[in-house]
Amino acid sequence: LERSEKDLQLLKLLEERIVNLDLENTTLSKYQKQLAELTGERVRLDTQGLTEAGLVEDAPLSARAVNLSLYDAMNLHLRNVNGTHLASVIQNEEILITTGEIIDGIYETRIYRVADLGITGDRQRHFINMIQSDTDGPWDVDEPGTGTVTPLGTNGVLLIRTTQPVHRQILKLIQERRQNTGLHPVIDAPAVAASQTAAIPSP
Fold this sequence. Notes:
Shape: globular
Number of strands: 9
Mean pLDDT: 84
Structural class: alpha+beta
Distance between the termini: 23 Å
């Protein structure tokens, strides 16, 4: 997947912007506008996906995020909207809000930092092999055009492209390693970019 410079700028924004957002009695459409004003970027609601899930743009939304990255705050705000799990992803140089079910089918690229686990240098290859064998995949080594794991140098930074369910499996593997070593649980890194077999069309 070719990622644009704009996608990388959005990655940096979501990862580094720390926010305090106390949302009470707002709506999904107002939240969309608030995010657009906060980021200065385009934020789009997947109206078709939301409609199919039985949601409307004025669905009520209430949640509080304190001292969180913008990415983590959005996950918190969207995890239960009228009983439906929503999520966000960067697609086509914009922030897209849609259902968790649709997001699960999107290939998403995230950054994982595992140097604190001693996974650097030659150990990265062993850890990559473990990820590919202990998760559902599919991976490009078996099915070209699917998931990939790319080390960014030798300092324990991995760029992983796969679906959200597999990202959750990877996160669990890393969390278990940290717990076994007494380290703090990892905070999942945000999306860099995403694609899916049939991309969600822009309006």
